[in-house]
Amino acid sequence: METTCDDPETARLVSRAITPDNTAEMTTRVEGDRIVTEITRETTGGLQSTVDDYVVNLGVAVQLANQDGEPSTTTTTET
User: How many folded domains does the chain comprise?
Assistant: First the structure.
């Protein structure tokens, strides 16, 4: 999954907020203004559950990173 933030500092801030919730099957890194998270699960159900949790955590982190409380990032999922 890739999340594009307004700037590299916001990407770093959001990444630091969500990384502690990563499971052993997840890696997260920052590439400029993007947060790149890779998730590997053996089952589709496990993948769906992990992605659902990640998206909720990401949404909270993005809102906290923005002073106005409104999300201002675009999240895209690559298959």
Answer: 1
